[in-house]
Specification:
This is Nucleotidyltransferase family protein. The chain is an alpha+beta fold. A five-stranded mixed β-sheet has the order 1-2-5-4-3. 31% of the residues are buried.
Length: 140
């Protein structure tokens, strides 16, 4: 699958966010690396101009995690945060460490694995297994 053909990626592209000011987190990296063909939404962490643009497209509210703010776009298909989950580190460092896939900045699989493990949520177990397998088995 070409990433640009995915409906959520098309919605993201339409926002015209500067790639240097956001990173796709959550399960989005599994989509980018071909570990999943479907995800229900995209989670972004944004700063600067990307955050400012997100604010023009939706209402800001407190993030469910209690850490920072969130803008819900396209009926929740894309959520933009000004912070990420506890223990994820500095927002600037997260964004600066993004890996570009088809020009879109995604959190690396290693970083995604670390935070999913750290949360210990049952809903992340399948994602953890997929990432662990990809990181230990060479891609052909």
């Amino acid at each position: 699958m070409v990433l640009a053909d995915h409906v959520l990626i098309r919605l993201l592209a339409g926002l015209r966010l500067p790639p240097s000011d956001y990173v796709v987190t959550g399960s989005g990296p599994l989509l980018a690396y071909g570990l999943k063909t479907t995800v229900h939404d995209l989670d972004l962490v944004a700063r600067g101009e990307a955050w400012d643009r997100a604010l023009t497209h939706g209402q800001v509210s407190l993030a469910a995690s209690g850490l920072g703010l969130r803008v819900e776009l396209f009926d929740g298909c894309i959520e933009v945060f000004d912070h990420w989950l506890a223990g994820s580190g500095d927002v600037d460092a997260m964004i600066d460490a993004a890996v570009r896939v088809e020009g879109i900045p995604f959190m690396s699989l290693g970083d995604t694995l670390r935070w999913k493990r750290g949360l210990g949520r049952a809903k992340d177990l399948a994602d953890i297994a997929l990432i662990e397998h990809r990181l230990t088995v060479p891609v052909r």
